[in-house]
Queue: 3 jobs
Job 1
Amino acid sequence: MRSLFKAGLAAAVALAVTGMAEAQQRTPLTIYTAVENDQLEPFKQAIEAAVPEVEVVWVRDSTGVITARFLAEAENPQADMVLGLALSSLLMFDEKGLLESYKPAAQDGLREKFRDRRDAPTWTGMDAYVGVVCFNSAEAEGAGIAQPTSWKDLLKPEFKDKIVMPHPASSGTGYLMVGGWLQMMGEEEGWKFMDGLHENIAAYLHSGSAPCVQAARGERVAGIALDMRGVYERSQGAPLEIVVPEEGSGWEMEATAIVKGSKNLDLAKKVADWGASKEANEVYSQTYAVVAHPEVQNTPDGYPENMEAKLIDNDFAWMAANRERILAEWSKRYESKAAPKN
């Protein structure tokens, strides 16, 4: 028995030593991201399985915070890569010369809108997230409020203090909504619409998911939020309708890029190759209905039909070039209802 114990102990020690040696041989790769917290571990496991030389070190926050941090570090970049951040943010970085030019091996196999088609590409699309209205039908019925079919339905007086949406400086979802309204309505009408919406807004929250969570709990009748958060809350039994208004909706693309000056450039390129692969898109599709690879589809129950046809023709370059101007104007008009930051 003692000899068996000694043999088992020796084997365990050998496995532990092997594991420690492998860990010591891996190179930490710092990746800035705005993906949801529950995506971090599955993404890390998939990346490290595909590129075993790498140890993923996440720096995660909301889109606005990561974007501001990255720009503040422009003279001394701290990240090796960006993965799972809004394309409009990446285009701001690209304009300032902060991204490495690289074309992943599988990029040509992705849907056209998810590819940087320039001769010296710097980004690769992953998935799309869409702004929707999470509409609590039970709360609405009690209040005598009809389900909206148009964005302008949200301006009706019965929605007074019953709507929440993400703050566009903090949340990528918030900014995609503001940018979407300005594009689909034109700037003059878009600001006029947001003036009216502001009258019905209870608070601007610092998360792209929180408005839908509040609607799901019955704290609000409507939350303007991420499409997939709405589907998730509905799957958990919340009386939610996931509404895409008839005019269409703003959307954003999550993308990957390599930071110029990365000391781990070769490894970053391997991770970028994984990011454009079908295998990576299968990971993305566990949390997003619209992904870059045309052969990967995992549409969840309750997801709006023909969503891709409802996406506006988003000008990401315009959103990037006008971000500071738009956010300054938005803050001047509507900051009074911003929720306190935690």
Note: Residues 216 and 238 are 5 Å apart (CA to CA).
Job 2
Amino acid sequence: MLLIISAVLAVLPLLGIAWFLMSGNITTVDGLFMSLILLTMSGIFALNALWEFERQRRRAKFVKQARAAGLFPLAAAGNGAQLLRGRIESVEFYEAHVGQPNKSVVTLWANGDSQMIVLEGDMRNRLPAGKKVELICRDENGVKTLVSADYS
């Protein structure tokens, strides 16, 4: 959805430039600066659409590898990542001592089972309770970090 919105918002400023060209106002100072502003806006949204497309492509490749390995809903990839699916029951945050990473305990409900995952950092705002989610986590130096979270 974000890809479609970004693509549409990348095209709309180009229509404004086309309107300036057709009306003949492109040669004025106002027309020149408005065209530069619209080109900048279009470029920003196009770059965002490109990043979103690349992120979806990488995620689809990861899910395809996990399904091929037959390890769904908990899938392990070659890079040490795990794919977890379910509904978030609760997220509890625990502050650690100085020099230690803070941790969040996430409880997922999937297929009648409850599963607890300990993730690095404060996940209370990123993982709202009650939402269905697909998490990709990676073990880094003995601590699980959240790579991506996709909601359905």
Note: The domain at 75-151 is CATH 2.40.50.140 (OB fold (Dihydrolipoamide Acetyltransferase, E2P)).
Job 3
Amino acid sequence: MTPTSPSMQYQNRKVAGFLLFIAGVAGVLGIIIAEALHPLYNTRQNYISDLGVGPSAIVFNTSMVLLGLSIIGSSYFIQKAFNIKLATVLLAVTGIGAVGVGIFTEDAGFLHVIFSLITFLFAGITAILSYKLVKPPLSYLSIAFGGVTLLSLVLFGTENYLNLGKGGMERMIAYPALLWATGFGGHLIGSSD
């Protein structure tokens, strides 16, 4: 196997970053737009996945599939750029989970729950492990965003919503992971080393 040249590693980082940035933006904007399209939606009382059915379904489900496909694509270029199989696999599994969320809406029951759990769990772990790929302060922020995602997932799973409601606590799982993807993606796009 021929080693990747520095210029190819540089290009692979750029493409990986672009795809991660798109994933983060697709997730955040998909949720916000879907919330605006759903007339009875309440961010405190409704699950994020409630946006996947009803008047907001096409926007939300499309954004989840786009998010997932972008993450899967990014994982390929992360592997080419950094050759870190664990990070690549975790990131790819996160993307597969997100695609599953968009395809198997909450009407799918247990299948939807499994894909949601996969997405949230592996996104948090991946964010934490990405600290190895960046320097401070982004390495610290990656750990913090991943940690908040995982802690919030535990709180959500045990129904400790900290007065945020189930919808608010679920956003404390999703948004830090999406912000990490956007920030980490932006870093990869702008990196010159």
Note: The chain has a mean pLDDT of 95.
